[in-house]
Amino acid sequence: MGAGVGSGIATAPAFVLPNVHQSLGLASGVTGRPRIHSIEVALNTVADELDKSAQAHESADVLFALSAILRDPVLLETIKAFLAEGSGAERGIRGAFNSFARKLEKAGGYFAERSQDLTALSARVIDELSGAKSDPDFPDEPFVLVAAELSPLLASTLKKTKVVGILTERGSATSHSAIIARGANLPTVMGAVGIQNILNGDLILLDATSGQVFIAPTAEEIRHYSEAAYPSTSIMLTIPDPDDIPVKILANLGSSFEVPTAVRAGAQGVGLYRTELLYLGEENPPTKDAQIFEYTKLLAGFQGKRVVVRVLDIDVDKPLPFLRPAGQGRYANRGLQVLLANPAVLQTQLEALAAAAEYYPATELWVMAPMVLDEKETKAFVNMARAAGLANVGIMIEVPEIAKPRILNKVLKMVDFLSIGTNDLTQYVLGKNRYGSTMPLSDVRNHRVLSVIDAVITAGRAAGKPVGICGEAASDPVSAKVFIAMGVDSLSASPSLIPALASAISLA
Ligand code: PEP
Ligand code: MG
Fold it and tell me: Using a 6 Å cutoff on CB, does residue 114 contact ligand 1?
């Protein structure tokens, strides 16, 4: 799982770039000391290329800015100075770009992000100078690009290829990567967990709206997504009248950019807004203001409706530099326990959510915690959330331990709602790995999993607290009908899957 950007589904073999720098320039080295004139020509050639690919490119401003750097006389002077001190061409170029990059890093934020582009850019100039080929051999068939990061340079190269989707290890909501991915209109998942295990040619199925990634998906998963998800199919399906649908159908979102897609798809609100994209790839947690900015965009799109926001849920494999790891055993370093070990991060997020809710009182904001393990954690979260001014506070049921009747009954006295995360719950009940190919969506209908889900829904109803389902299984019509029969209050699915789901469960 990662953070989805844009919308849509992509299914194709993986093409793995070991790292972004390698993808942009082989930097095979320049021996000897080419005359400064050759270096100037190389700088201008790469600048011309950038100007050309900037035409009608969604990141034109970034590409033009990079080409302006290449043409900056100060850059050439710095290279000259390195050469005068005895450096070879490659060291001179790298040194000059590095000193530019350091200046940008000092400027922080947006500029610091651009500094990484400069490192890639210097490799491209060195390739040009050495006559090396700067583009990797992209496949002739459709492929999902698997890369450390998506930079404007890489995106401009991809234009000429058969890329159908992008999966990256790094990236954040405010990063240019995310903006580029949206602009390129390619289904993209950023900050993906376990990306290192993907090999060239592995079949990848990614769902950009929910951030789900399947490596070597089962035939069932491919059918489920491809039948329901393609935008043309979704548009053709008429969305049933909400009165004919027995439960609320809500959307799973990874960013406020997906709000219009969700509304168009007929979502009656948001059942899971994953906040990870705000944090992934960052050195520091997002500020309260940056979060308010994002949350208000989300709330503005659903006035008069329910929006369930989940506080940060970072996975084990993706530690963030500003989060102290916490816990032990199979649930170590996941979910709420990590946030409780880093209370300032949680506090800021809760305050930002409460502040955003004040701007949009007509939107019903519900806030929940992920991977909650017991009643003690529940109490700590509920207390903090209420103290921050949040009115509707709940937790996710994702591990079997919290669904034990004794614990669940205590939890239900504290919370306003429950949301079942079937992706995690299924893997933990069955002892499987959700990212592998051995956990098909239908596993949720294993009797051991269904009995946990049933117990949670029954207990929730007895306590008068709504229980929703927000894992991928909610969008599978067969499972969805089972959940409805059990008395679930809402189903939350990727926007692209909503029309098909609504039609399948419509009573009309
Ligand atoms: C889940 O586990 O079902 C869920 C919705 O959370 P995530 O997929 O983000 O882990
Ligand atoms: Mg989960």
Answer: no
